[in-house]
Amino acid sequence: MVKRKSKLKPNCIYCNAPLTISNRVMDDGRGNKTNICTECHLKSSRERTAKWRKRNPEKNKEVWQNGNKIASDKYIKMKKEYIEKIGGCQICGYNDFSCLPVFEFHHMSGDKDLNVSSYRRTIRKNTFLKEIQKCIVVCANCHRKIHYNSGIITALSH
């Protein structure tokens, strides 16, 4: 199947506002470029979501009740796989994987794009893996020591 190139128009197809790089929705989620401004895109997205919620009240309730648990389970699975691969705390060697919340990620450089644990509901696997490559795995005790006395970091790097 040959993918046709869509012609980008200079104005939004809904409101006729001029499109620039800063206000054009560049990707429709399927990899296609669009001829829609960000304002019209958000409006139509909100309208579609509201209609779906009205048509599917039970499904909507289920999504909100289970969505956090499903996403959290996915995050926990990714975290556990990575920490087991690393072997536990990279400072003291603690490796009791029966209590996963003990392990935390500490960013080694100032190159922190996001706080990994704060995005457990929305984080994608490749984003998660990319971000934790900038971190060391530490137990909670060592993490507190790092932030209390950053001398451990310099000792670790030698």
Descriptors:
mainly alpha; two-stranded antiparallel sheet; 5 helices; elongated; 2 strands; 158 residues
Structural account:
The protein has 158 residues and is mainly alpha-helical. The protein folds into two domains: 8-55, no CATH class; 57-157, no CATH class. It contains five helices and two strands, in the order ααβαβαα. The chain has helices spanning 38-55, 57-86, 125-132, 140-148, 151-157, and strands at 103-107, 135-139. Strands 1-2 form a two-stranded antiparallel ribbon.
Helix tally? Answer: 5
Count of distinct structural domains: 2
**Poorly predicted parts:** none
Give the SSE order as H and E letters. HHEHEHH
Main β sheet profile = 2 strands, antiparallel
**Rounded mean pLDDT score:** 80
Return Rg in Å: 22 Å
| Strand order, sheet with most strands | 1-2
Distance between the termini: 55 Å
Strand content: 5-15%
